[in-house]
Design a protein that fits this description.
Length: about 140
């Protein structure tokens, strides 16, 4: 895996400048909001390995604040059982994960996927690339 960048990704933090010339397509990489608790470091690593910029939230309330204040978030990577008061899902692509419950494709919003925990990092990188590749 590539070396993790050390930059702020939490509420109120700005996304670091990304040189679009460093990306294969010449476009800025997608911004993915990671809403996780104990598995957040792995999820952020997976997002960055997929070539995306990770923005972190520790609970649903923090995620809602970020989603309301930013227009550049293109995908939500979230655990289903995350604490907080989110009611419903945002109208963006969503990658849902859980080690407690399982979801069938018909139970998911359009442009969403579910992966059960524990997951393999390499498989999640491919899942993320597939989702963001269709942006």
């Amino acid at each position: 895996m590539k070396q993790r960048r050390s930059h702020p990704r939490t509420l109120g933090a700005s996304i670091p400048y990304i040189d679009v010339m460093d990306t294969p397509s010449g476009k800025s990489p997608p911004v993915v909001l990671v809403v996780e608790d104990e598995a957040r470091p792995l999820a952020v690593e997976v997002v960055e390995e997929a070539g995306c910029v990770a923005l972190e939230a520790g609970d649903a309330d923090e995620a809602v604040a970020l989603l309301e204040s930013r227009s550049d978030i293109s995908l939500l990577f979230t655990d289903i059982g995350i604490p907080g008061s989110m009611d419903g899902l945002p109208p963006i692509k969503i990658l849902l994960v859980s080690g407690q419950v399982g979801l069938q494709p018909f139970e998911l919003p359009s442009s969403s996927r579910f992966v059960g925990k524990p997951y393999r990092a390499a498989a999640m990188v491919e899942e993320l690339r597939s989702l963001v590749g269709s942006l």
